[in-house]
Amino acid sequence: MDTIKYLEMNELLNVLAQARKKSVRDHAVALFAFRFGLRASELSTLKLEDVQGGYCDVQRLKGSEHTRQAITSDSNPLLDVKAVLAEYLKTRQDSGSMFLFTSRLGSGMTRRAIYNVFEDAAFRAGIEAGRRNIHICKHSLAVNLRKRGVPVDIVQRALGHARPETTIKFYYHTSQDETTTAIQNAFATA
Fold first, then answer.
1. Burial state string for 86-104 with b = 16 or more CB within 10 A and e = fewer than 16
2. Listed residue (30, 3, 41, 24) closest to 123, CA to CA
3. Rounded Cα–Cα distance for residues 29 and 31 (Å)
4. What is the pLDDT of residues 69-113, one digit of tens each?
5. What pTM value is reported for the model?
6. Is the dihedral of CA 152, 153, 156, 162 positive or negative?
7. 108 has which bridge partners?
8. Between the CA of residue 125 and those of 13, 16, 38, 65, 69, what are the distances in Å?
């Protein structure tokens, strides 16, 4: 994992908390980036109709697959996509925009504005400069799922990868520390 930068869950929760302090919209942007592994471009083009009926329906970019994932609840309010989305939609001004995430002016947020939302929250959460890019949410989803033993095919679908080889190439290799810990744990009861 030396080449892929990601956030541990505690770091991600700190970023989400900082985004939440700023606004419900900022929290929703960061949470959707993480929970659905979305790129900034995908977030900026997400429409209201794409989150109807309890699902987040995304035509992914860069040759990735179309995904349709459930918008779920979570016992941790920072990760509760269903509640955060409902709250955001209540506070979202009806400017007539078809886009889910809107700017102060009522138009859809630009890719750069989405980057800025995440970068600001990550900065306030104490994340160093090299890990403040919103794309780290996609990496963080994959790595945190892998570390929790989620099979590669599930991670592949969560990220919208067209081929399992892509998921394996980027997320399914282990560090020396992980290898050492696994070996120690395997023989701990011997």
1. ebbeeebeeeebebbbbee
2. 30
3. 6
4. 999 999 999 999 999 999 999 999 888 899 999 988 888 899 999
5. 0.85
6. positive
7. 102
8. 9, 9, 21, 32, 28
